[in-house]
Amino acid sequence: MTEERWSGFVQEVAEETRRLAELSARWLQRPHRWPYDAQQLRSFQELSQELQRVASRLASEEIFAIVVFMGGTGVGKSTLLNALAGEPISETSSRRPTTNVPVCYIHQAMPRDKLPAPILQNVKTHAHDALRQKVLVDTPDMDTTKEENWRLLEKILEHADIVLYVGSPEKYHDDLGWQLFGKFSKHKAFAFILNRWDECADREKIGKAPDEDWLADLRREGYTNPRTFRTSAKWWLEKPTKELPQGEQFQDFKRWLEAELASKELIAIHQKNLASLLHEVIQCGEKLADSATLSRDNLWRAWDQVIREKIDEYLARCMRFLQERQADLDKFVRAESLQGIPGWWASVSRLVRKPALGQGALSWFRLKRPRPNGRESTSTPDEEANLSSRDLEEKLTRHFGEDYLRYFGEDLRTSLLVASETQGLPAVVAEAALRELADRNWLVFWKEQMRSATQEALANLWQPTGWKGRLRNLLARWLPGRLCWLTGFAGLCVLMYRMFFAATGHSPGLWDVFYILLPFFLAEWLSFRIVWWLSPRNGQAVASLIRERLQERAREHFALLYRRVLDNAVNQVEQEVAELRNIVRAAQDLRKRIQAHSQAVEELTRLYAAR
Amino acid sequence: MNGRNTLSPAEAAQEYVRLLELISQFFDKSSPREFTREPILYAAAVVRNYLLRCLEEPQSPWQHVAVIGGGGAGKSTVVNILLGERLAEANPQAGYTRHPSAFCEQVDHCRHVLPRLRPIPNPVPADVDDDIYDIRCRTQGRLPTTLIIWDTPDVTTIHAAHYTHRVLEVLGLADAVIYVASAQRYNDVVPSLYFSLCRQSGKPTIACLTKIPERETENILCDFQEKILGPASAHIPCIVIPYMSADALCNPDITQPYRQQLLQALEKWFGATEESRGNSGLTAHASAAPHKEGAYGWRGKTCRQILQYLANSEAHWRNLLQPELVALQQWRQLVQQCHQAILQRYRQEFLAAERLPIFDEAMVRLLEILEVPIVSNVLAILRLPWTLLGSLLGKARTAGRGGPLQQEQESLENAVRTALGQLWYEVQRRQHDSAFWMRLRQGLDPNSRPDAQILSLLRTRFAAYERARNDCIETIARSIYADLESRPMALNALRGIKLSLELGSIGGILLTAGINVWDFVLVPLATSAIQAIAEVLSQGYVVAQREAAKQMQWQLVAQHVLEPVQQAIFAQEAIRDWLRLEKGFAEMARWREKLAHGLSSGYGV
Predict the structure, then answer these.
(1) Range of the domain at A60
(2) What residues in B contact A150, CB-CB < 8 Å?
(3) Residue A207 burial (10 A CB sphere; 0-12, 13-18, 19+)
């Protein structure tokens, strides 16, 4: 790639980078459902800001690189810059720290508006064309008691393209500098200068020499063949009579900076920096996205199980409640059974067996009491049809509901939270989803369900499905009424026969009436007993019917409700993660494009850690 | 309370050190320039290595001098200068020395001075990276026998994080500290921190500037005094060693003046003893500074300053850890709320519906004993209307009022289960608030939550509680009639009142209405009415007792079952350190005072 094509490179990549930066910034700003790791989010944010910076850098017309000197106080950063410039650009002294304001050394033709603000505090211009494309920045230290300097340096390093890590025999691997190096070496080019080389030369040899030791440290960080220079900047500035120590490389360094780092190399560095940055963005984004993976099916299975368990638990309690009122229920059912039977034996029984929960014996006097089984019930309003069952419902719902269902919602919610967590859905996400159901009054729901289940169970008393029930209904409709009237009619016929045909002169007496009434009563009684025998007699059936109905309804209802809640929550998380994955994909595409275009500049791999 | 008071000063110091070590664990390096941990570790080392030593042996003749500084500043060189011989391994690799070395006349002199580091009685290469200190014997008797010089590793290089604690151990031990700073390093933040720790805690310090270019001496010295020493510069001797070649540094003749200066400065602190004057050949003027507080008065003074330093720092550490303590308090409140919620739910779900049938039996018994034995059989016939009516009413009253739907234990378990779930949620919600919640959250990982243990604790506790409850309720129920039975006077009086009322009413009816048919109606009515009044009254009494029993049961559950459960929930293994911390902060000042008391008796103050 030549300099002319620089603008092409910009147009291709700068726009993409800007878009990526915007996308990631927008993603970071949106409210997150998922509780991402704060540390990871922070580094993603830093990367996003870095992308923003790189994008604005690439928008420049001209190729240039910001070369930053970094190192502890007293290692000779300013002296190095002065030696490079050949004149005192930056103040040097024995007072620590010396440089408190970064010195920016740029070519006079360099447009300043493209340079980041932090480095532009103390600008010195020059006319060396060899340094035309390089912005040299001398920085404050990082290791003195002056903490502002550290922060300033950190800010400047964010804008650097190439960092020159300057060390001295005393300070080549101080922890503070190493931390900065570790932080920025991921996507910035690093070269290493061991200044004050003259101080090393006349030392005795125990342990490793500083340069060897430094190389070993760098190897551990992945720099197998780092670009290092041993310099003695002071010598070049003062040119003393003393001879130059052996192995001094300041001239090499100068040549490297001025000549070897040409446009081609600078472009390659920009590309490689951006590619490394994108690599980090991809890794960080993937880590974030991977942390928020969910299995919807597993989650639902867990939730469904919890819902079923809770419903069953509460229904078991409900059953116990009904069992304790078994006697009442039995009475009620028996009384109800009588209601369906016509004939006066049944009426007498109704009088004797006071319905425990119904409105009592008085109901007998309501002659036109509708039968709940037959077609007649359609002609009367439902309210009246269920007068007595209403009372049962009322008792069940009021007592059971208010006393025992109070904690249903809370129990269910808590169990769902716990279940979600074991399936990898953080409770905070589940809670946010469940919050919309929190205000719901489960008591009302259960009361309604209890009522309708009771109604159904009672109605079922009269419309049974088994042979016994059918037979009972059939007999109840036919036997008591028709059989009685039939026997009565037969008796009358016998009486008539005897009056007119069998024994003439026999006048009808009181006994004859007895002949008619006795079979009539007997038939009535017999048919009542038969129907009665076939009728449902204990409340057990009602109770289990209520339970079945309730279970069915509640399961259906809650499954629907909570499935929606869960889907909502999972959808939101998935959408958020999908957006993140889109960013990662875009970064991958961009990285591939850069790598396809970038040129293999063998020499430059020395400026980066091997990965 | 007793245990606390009987703590000896040495034990108090041990406790203090343990607490400081615990505090130090709460601080991770969140940024490279954050140094919260070092002062705490230093304080622990000072108490352990210095104050405890002074406590055991107030008149210890040994004077430990630690030489500290940044990497490559020339600590080993200064040690060699001081010793007057090349015993320390000075070398060009920054951060070469990895463990402290003691230089003394005989190995026995400093065998047991650093409990945390293993003594090695012979020289070990300085780059051995282990928790040891090696003892090297001086060959030339150029220093006072009592003087022990310590060479330490650096505190600045990338490996220093592994061994700063070794430096801090020596720093804690030292009677005096020589701070070595080079022209490059004199304003470095990390060595300065260590230096200022020594000064703040009142240890005698000597600054030693090395590698100073001749021309810049004045300049650098002023800058150093202004930026690092500040107002204290008048009290701290500064010795300047100019930049010299390695050969020159090895030549004792060239370095002799610096050695003299260093020794003088040391002597100013310690006061000259006979021995030191004889051996070091110093002039006698140093001995002209007799100390008011006896031969080792300087040590007592240092102890006092150290204690003052600790007292000042305590508040600072407490402030730093305030969020953690607040979090612990919040957790305590949360658990307390959870406890209340369980109790509330238990009351509503179980206790409200509990009938306690034993009280119905007690009621029957109470009515029985109120009867006069033979007369009551006659009266029972007369009371027939009430008996009939009462049985009907009783049925109506109890109908539809079943017992609780859950067993007591089951109800408690359900309540606890839900409360725990909510508690875990609260913990998760707060996990990013502070380290406390994060740790608690980790301890309460969904797969390792203590629900099962807590429920099993509940069950074991419940068995014990059940016995206590049965006894208690039985006692209350029995007391309904047993109280009367045990006091025949009162019982007979009541019986008498009732009987006389009944007989009186019968007599009254017979007298007023005469003997006629109406008597068959009126007499049973009157006796029934009196019986009804008696029953209503005793019913009221029994109901009150039943409520009292329920209240008692509630309290028993809270005390015997739920309190241990609450304790088990609260005292999670994960937050043990926080509990220790809270307790430690409460005791800290007391421990320090105990130690101060012990020390003051040692130095006669």
Answers:
(1) 3-293+577-610
(2) 33
(3) buried
